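Bench log, entry 3. Co-assembly request; chain sequences pasted below exactly as received.
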Amino acid sequence: MSTDTKERIMEAARLTVQDLGYSGLSFRELAKDVGIKSASIHYYFATKGELGSAITSRYTSHFAQYFEELLTQGQDLKTCMARYTDVFANTLRNGNRMCLAGILSAERNELPDDVRSEVVKWGEMNERWIARVLMLDARAKPDETARRARAIFAAVSGAQLIAHSRGDVSVFEEIISAYRVSGLLP
Amino acid sequence: MSTDTKERIMEAARLTVQDLGYSGLSFRELAKDVGIKSASIHYYFATKGELGSAITSRYTSHFAQYFEELLTQGQDLKTCMARYTDVFANTLRNGNRMCLAGILSAERNELPDDVRSEVVKWGEMNERWIARVLMLDARAKPDETARRARAIFAAVSGAQLIAHSRGDVSVFEEIISAYRVSGLLP
DNA sequence: CAACACCTATCTATCGTCAGGTAAAAACTG
DNA sequence: CAGTTTTTACCTGACGATAGATAGGTGTTG
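Structure output for the full assembly:
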């Protein structure tokens, strides 16, 4: 018995959206990737929105778990943030792909409501986690931390967007190091 | 004689792309906006790529001129950067639209080559101008300025992306002010 | 009369979606 | 345990809508 078909659909769909966006995801192409017929996708996901929402929710859960592990392993502040930006860098390295929620953010105005809200959840999860990481520094002021966390999330997302537009991961790395020099990133 | 049709096509196309992206731009809908038939658009722009490239090039020229004026008017560093971020904020205020090149950046992997290169030109223009602005500070180190300019450009683009995904301009403003606190923005 | 600024009508391709079919596996019944 | 029914996991084939593009026509303007 091969890997669950539903899993394979979600995996292929995620990779396509990260590459071509939600609008670039077609049931027929997706079916070819998976090796089934397009109608069969509807057996698992009634609508495209349902599929989009499912892969985004899964994406958030996956990284929430990975980020959580970094903290439970007792990694320090700088290491946590380095691993964090690595996630975005590695996405670019994999076929110049974007963060799933990043590319969906740009497409926001043409997304179904349920996909939209999953994109927001990704952002909230990222901001919460970064805030916790920032609090590893005993000198951090709790009332400024949330704002700074959101700024870091936005800045890293922007670095990925610009590097993606150039098709060059080294642009991402350069921007991240400039964030460190400026003091935005620890 | 009403405003030049070609201008009206470009204006409407730009607004649609800033709203729905390049993939969300259709000749038929665009024709309706302008009040002509879709085939007539091909009279002015042979292909969709040609239209996309034209509006992006024009977008860059337009803001290059505006930014240039800020400098020739002798505005100081802080004012220049405030006017700069205002451009992105106002775009969001206008129907939660994104910077034209920002939304095209996300769609990069499915853009025609000529549109792609116009997106890169937008970035280069922004980075060059920000670098000049940073040099208004006599203490600025020339060899670090280019890197910092790129970081600012990316960070502001990211702030817009995240605010756009939330559909809330105040998110943009909050992030920008956090950039100032951190020292990334002057 | 020619250049211009459109138009009608149509082509091929692709889109998400759906009705309905099928073969095999699983569950239920006597 | 055999026989029957139901569910699972797909499939074929098609629907109407929409996409960019194009050939060729029409009316206006200089």
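The two ends of chain A are 47 Å apart (CA to CA). The mean pLDDT of chain A is 96.
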